[in-house]
Design a protein that fits this description.
- This protein is of the alpha+beta class and about 80 residues long.
- It has a domain at about 40-80.
- The protein has helices at about 20-35, 40-45, 60-70, and strands at about 45-50, 55-60, 75-80.
- It has a three-stranded antiparallel sheet with strand order 2-1-3.
- A hairpin with a 4-residue loop joins strand 1 (about 45-50) and strand 2.
- The longest helix is centred in the middle third of the chain and has 18 residues, at about 20-35.
- About 5% of the residues are buried.
């Protein structure tokens, strides 16, 4: 996601006495946090590729990156979150 792109966020607050500026600051902070978390390199570190055609699990970031960026997806190849 590009840095200047906007996203929809649902922010639940536990008190009603926050100003609009404080809420905007929190939303901007969340946007910045998610921007860094969603970078491709960080995504590849947190995921693995399960290839049932070869009965292998690829955890190397390079292999995961190649699988994510590939235009044609293979059957029975899955991207799994390590968590």
């Amino acid at each position: 996601m590009k840095r200047n792109q906007r996203r929809d966020l649902l922010v639940l607050l536990n008190n009603h006495q926050r100003s609009q500026e404080a809420i905007d600051h929190e939303v901007e902070w969340l946007h910045e946090l998610l921007y860094h978390v969603e970078e491709l390199e960080n995504f590849c570190k947190a995921h693995e590729v399960i290839d049932l055609n070869r009965y292998k699990i690829y955890r190397q970031t390079g292999k995961v990156k190649m699988a994510v960026l590939r235009r044609d997806f293979k059957a029975f190849e899955f991207i799994n979150n390590k968590n």
